[in-house]
Amino acid sequence: MPHCSVIGAGLAGCEAALWLAGRGVQVTLYEQKPLRFSPAHKSAGFAELVCSNSLKAERPDSASGLLKLEMRALGSRLLPCAESARVAAGGALAVDRDRFSAAVTAQVEAEPNITVVRREVTAIDESAPLLVASGPLTEGALAGAIAALAGGQELSFYDAVAPIVTAESLDYGRIFAASRYGRGEADYLNCPFNKEEYEAFHAALIAAERAPQHAADAGLTVYEGCMPIEVMAARGADTIRFGPLRPVGLRDPRTGHRPWANVQLRAENAGRTLYNLVGFQTNLKWGEQKRVFSMIPGLEHAEFVRYGVMHRNTFLNAPAVLTPELCLKDHPNVFFAGQITGFEGYMESAASGLLAARALWARLTGQAYAPPPENTMCGALLAYITTPNKDFQPMGANMGILPRPAAVQAIRDKRERYLALSQAARAAMADWAQLLN
Ligand SMILES: Cc1cc2nc3c(=O)[nH]c(=O)nc-3n(C[C@H](O)[C@H](O)[C@H](O)COP(=O)(O)OP(=O)(O)OC[C@H]3O[C@@H](n4cnc5c(N)ncnc54)[C@H](O)[C@@H]3O)c2cc1C
Predict the structure, then answer these.
(1) Quick one: which atom of ligand 1 is closest to the CA of 350?
(2) Whole-prediction pTM value?
(3) Closest ligand 1 atom to the C-alpha of 33?
């Protein structure tokens, strides 16, 4: 009977271990709790939700809902656990985190093909295929071992991320494409402020509510280049106007003048369906980000697919080091799953556990493996993290990363458009899931 090790009994590790065990693989699952806790983990149970208790939307026309439907097609064992621990949350799947963790722990412990070993793993034995799912707070000897395998510099520790919006939600009546001084292509989208708009925005920004700093981040050093926009704004009325919001080298085609201040949006993906707010790394609460950043001209109805965050987040430079099988290019026995790969979010982490488990299973049983089609949410996320990107940052499920056939793009109603994308993705995922059977 094939055997493999899984390091970390978090969301990705449990999902992968249960899936592999269900196919007859003997799994040794290593978990450091309760001998050692990261600053964010508090309980001895598996699949601990360290922050929010929401697993996000369930509607099939939403990115998170689509992801869950695909996970079901792939045989997720965590979703039924989540349902058993559900708490009321409108259209979202939110859980009682203790009951959810208890349900997952019980499933893992009841699985005869899984042996749980409670100890901290400090080295990686690549003599046989194994799965690393130690999460974004991986530290110490294991972090060192991963960094060494991934080429030393290829393990990132980012602490500041700017929000991302969808291209289709922007108001192009206000926004104009241009690079400063007309250099090169018109690579940026520009959101021009007049004086009154800027003053109102600045006042809202410095008064907005900030997220409490997580214990995991105690002692976090913020580099000057990564300073939160609200901290910079608080230094003076014009500080950001001479910093990330400087209008120099730009002319607003609507007025013919240089704007008073200007926010630039930079393409986040090759298809230019997503844009990040340049220089807007922030620690504001998510609701406050939506409220205040929607005051930026042209972003009044912006759809935020990712909010800015500031916390320690250890992840691989996946485009440089990972294959679509989720193993290291130079160490093919070492597979990865979870947030450490750049799949961002609870359900995304679990979904990547399912993908890595399938690839690992194919390797163990000598079968051919092809990644899921790119028009599925899982396939699009996988393509995102393995496509060359010099400013790679983790990415969660969102409709902006799905390829758009012309027929879908022509659908005017956004909900209908998303439903069409979702239907195509589910059909493609059903076929892909069937391949294994
Ligand atoms: C502070 C913080 C807050 C977050 N909040 C949210 C949120 O609200 N919503 C959301 O969707 N996402 C959130 N995320 C992102 C992400 O979804 C979670 O981190 C998620 O838990 C990642 O799942 P994972 O399986 O990759 O890692 P984890 O769930 O962290 O699991 C990793 C497991 O590996 C174990 N482990 C680590 N090192 C070793 C070792 N050396 N030996 C043995 N075991 C080890 C850990 O104890 C842990 O049980 C947050 C991330 C952080 C850091």
Answers:
(1) 25
(2) 0.82
(3) 47
